[in-house]
Design a protein that fits this description.
- It is flat, with a radius of gyration of 18 Å.
- It has one domain: 2-Layer Sandwich (Translation Initiation Factor IF3), CATH 3.30.110.
- The chain is of the alpha+beta class.
- It is built from 2 helices and 4 strands; from the N terminus they run αββαββ.
- 36% of the residues lie in helices and 40% in strands.
Length: 108
């Protein structure tokens, strides 16, 4: 009976972790040893089709959209770090999900 309770507990933790890992994300964290100038922050909203809602796809799309927004405001050799995103509204009818992302604009 103890093994069964441990198995159910493990399954519950695994499901909760999986559920929350798909609703928020952190990507390209700024490391303390990176010598960069933080210029500001940018924010964007984008849509991902439900069948492609892998964390890597969401991270990539967040980066691309944030960099595009940053290039509207900043010039030169810039990049994005400390990307954070959250899932917003979703539509079961067309299987699209909206995400909001925020990141720091840096210059090396």
């Amino acid at each position: 009976m103890t093994g069964k309770k441990i198995g159910v507990g493990f399954l519950t933790v695994a499901l909760v972790t999986l559920l929350f890992s798909c609703t928020t994300g952190n990507y390209m964290t700024l490391k303390s040893n990176e010598k960069v100038e933080v210029l500001g922050t940018v924010q964007t909203t984008f849509t991902v089709t439900g069948s492609f809602r892998y964390k890597s796809v969401i991270n990539n799309q967040a980066y691309i959209n944030l960099l595009a927004e940053a290039k509207k405001e900043y010039s030169g050799d810039i990049d994005i770090r400390d990307i954070t995103w959250v899932i917003g509204a979703g539509s079961a009818a067309d299987n699209n999900y909206t995400y909001t992302a925020m990141g720091k604009v840096i210059r090396r």
